[in-house]
Amino acid sequence: MSKKLIEALVNLDEDSVLKEVKELKEKKVETPDIIAFLQEGMAGVGKKYESEEYFLSELIMSADIFKMATAILGESAKAAEYARKNGTFVLGTIYDDIHDIGKNIVASIMSANGFDVVDIGIDVPTAKFIEAIKLHKPQIVGISCLLTTAFDNIKEAIASIEKAGLRKDIKILIGGGTVDASTCKYVNADAFCKSAQEAVDVSKNYLKIA
Amino acid sequence: MSEDIRKLFDERLGRYQAAIAFEPVDRIPIAAGTNNFAETYAVANNQEVIYDPQKWLEGEIAFCRAFPEADVLRNNRFWAPLYDAVGLKIYKFPGRDLAPHVPTQFVERENMKADEYDVLISNPAEFMLERFLPRVFGEFDKGHTRTHFAFLKAGLAQGMMSEIMRNRSIQLQNQCGMPQPMTGAFLAPFDALGDALRGLEGILKDTFRQPDKVIQACDLLAPIMARFAIGIADPLRRYPIFVPTHKATFLSPKQFDRFYWPSLKKTLMIVINAGYKIRIYLEGDWSRHWHHFLELPKGTLVCDIDDPADNIFKAKEEIGHHQCIAGGIPSTLFILGSPQEMDDRVKILCEKAGKGGGYIISGGCYIPSNTRPENYRAMLDAVMKYGWYDRNITPKPLAPLPVKGETPVLGEKGVLTPWTVKKAELGDIPGEEDLIRKPWETIEALAFNWLWNWAL
User: Which residues fall within 8 angstroms of residue B13, CB to CB, at 6 or more apart?
Assistant: First the structure.
């Protein structure tokens, strides 16, 4: 266990994280173990976010450091990450809405927290959500939306997913600036998330992961 | 303008100004800064609003007549042909890139690279012309001739756009007695960098990897933003200048205090010293940051409080005695709520947020375009029931803020070709130098301002 690596990531000390990962790799520490340390670091960052010591900028920075660290480990990291995955998360921005910043942040934070993220893009029609659910069999589906004018589109997409008989095995999360509890009820989603970290927490909760 | 219309205009403007200045007033003003509902309530669809100024104006006039209790009106800010002239890539427009019923949307990309801070800081005009504009102007990819022509067209179209906005303002004033909630706009320097230049992820990573460069760039942008705003504001100084804020909600208080606030405060103070008040949209959750507004002179800002709408009560307590606050109705209530729920909400807002003045009823920075008309009507009716302070007062326009200081000059960083360079090119000047120099510098400064239009 590399406390040094975990702490460096929690403290967003980029240079130390990268140096430590290189050293562990040279010492022939197994890739899955290094990934485990990094994910523990990400969990520490999440805790700091929840206690409001960290904000979005720290989350984004941590995900970026995580990405650079796994890049050092090369191809083996992907397999190791996949083996340790918490679950599959299909994510897209609802049709008529082309905003991607929020969606991309959720994708990188979920990914750094051990989810296999399938990003199906922006302006996503219902048929594409359904196709992705059939193909990837996710446990969690995320629908991003920044426009109040697209509420009815989310409602339609969720109704169609349900009609296709795909709802019972998945939880649907919605998120985006204008989305709140009344939107969640209106569109019949399972939960709404105010932040990327909340998407991680709610998903882990659904999957009963501590 | 008829006498009745003039009276109506004066009452509305006076009511709005009194709330901002904490002066006695008859009732709470109904004064959303952005009313997207008004755009397409009547006459026009989203594409027509941005492409056909006549239809846009007709829609606004129809709105004013249907909802005469509203005290100010501002909605769309785009005239798309101006953007078409250069092929601007940072917006997607209804009817051109999107279905005609879909709203205009901003496309955030990295249009300035992480290693270009020094280029920006050493020569902002050259940075805009050589780096930023070629990345965001689609017409620049189509050969030399078309690039030059695009510049010419955009300069001419800018004049047309100003005329459209001036005409709207005059028509709304003369035909409907309707003032504007704000004219002229700028961005907080950190947002100017973070929106169209570096993008959210880029700027946030920069605060960790090259913090000093970010601060230097923000300091450089403060007077640029202030001059830009004042250049297009109401010359009579009746209306506040507008600043939306985008990235502050994502920053920790420590980061906000270091990266966001110092240059924003500088910009705000230049604008206030030039005799203007400011309407600032506190987008997202600003509750950790807004205490800073106590550092500015009392009654100089309207702070729009975003969703979650209950933040309005916290804002009332923490800054509402010093700066006017606006908001309190959740965006979703306009769309998904009922008239009774609206009535209940407005009653609470009038009692609590309205107490003692300095309050404007509104949604979270805007009124959504898909608002149910019966809910908007219920909001107006409820203010007429619960929003009164003193029916004996007839509001009148107030004198603007005094002008306290000169707007800072940018010197060689606010032009592309300084006079010294031009003078050397001209050689010996046989006549009076100042007659040539002054207009040269004025036009250079105007063109410099124009460059920033595309980053806002």
Answer: B179, B238, B395, B397
pLDDT at B39: 87
Domains of chain A, start order:
3-82 (1.10.1240.10), 85-206 (3.40.50.280)
On chain B, the residues whose CB falls within 8 A of the CB of A60 are 200-201, 204-205
Predicted confidence at residue A74, as pLDDT, reads 86
Query: For the residues of B362-397, what is the DSSP string, one character each?
Result: EESSSB-TT--HHHHHHHHHHHHHH-BS-TT----P
Selection from B397, B73, B361 nearest residue B237 by Cα: B397
- Out of A57, A104, A182, closest to residue B252 by CB: A57
pLDDT at site B171: 96
**pLDDT at position B279:** 98
- Are B98 and A98 within 8 A, CB to CB? yes
pLDDT band at B20 (very low <50, low <70, confident <90, very high): very high
pLDDT in tens, B439-450: 999 999 999 999
Give the Cβ contact number of residue A163 at 10 Å.
Answer: 11
Closest CA to A177 of B332, B456, B89, B31: B332
**Averaged pLDDT score across all residues of chain B:** 96
Q: Which of A64, A96, A180 is facing B330, going by the closest CB pair?
A: A180
pLDDT > 90? residue B249 = yes
Neighbours of A169 (CB within 10 A): 10
Interface of B with A in 77-106 (CB under 8 A): 92, 98-99, 101-103, 105
Chain B positions in Cβ-Cβ contact with residue A186 (cut-off 8 Å):
332, 336
Closest Cβ–Cβ partner in B205, B208, B252 for A55: B252
Interval B397-430: pLDDT, tens: 999 999 998 888 888 899 999 999 999 999 999 9
B207 touches chain A (CB under 8 A): yes
Residue of A nearest to B246 (CA): A177
Joined tokens for residue B345: 């909400």
Instruction: Enumerate domains of chain B plus CATH numbers.
Output: 36-69+74-177 (no CATH), 183-399 (3.20.20.210), 409-456 (no CATH)
B371 close to B246: Cβ distance less than 8 angstroms? no
Q: Is 90 exceeded by the pLDDT of residue B130?
A: yes
* Whether A14 and B252 lie within 8 Å, measured CB to CB: no
Tens of pLDDT, residue by residue over A136-149, are 999 999 999 999 99
Please state whether A176 falls in left (phi above 0), alpha (psi between -120 and 50) or beta.
left
3-state secondary structure of B329: strand
B327 touches chain A (CB under 8 A): no
CB pairs under 8 A between A and B: 83
Token look-up 């309707």 returns: B178
Is the confidence metric ipTM above 0.85 for this complex? Answer: yes
Comparing CB atoms, the residue among B250, B252, B370 nearest residue A149 is B370
User: CA-to-CA distance for B451 and B276, rounded, in angstroms?
Assistant: 23
- What is the residue-wise DSSP string for B95-122? TTTB-TTSPPEE-----S-GGGHHHHHH
Report the gap between the CA of A203 and the closest CA in chain B (Å).
Answer: 22
A52: number of Cβ within 10 Å: 10
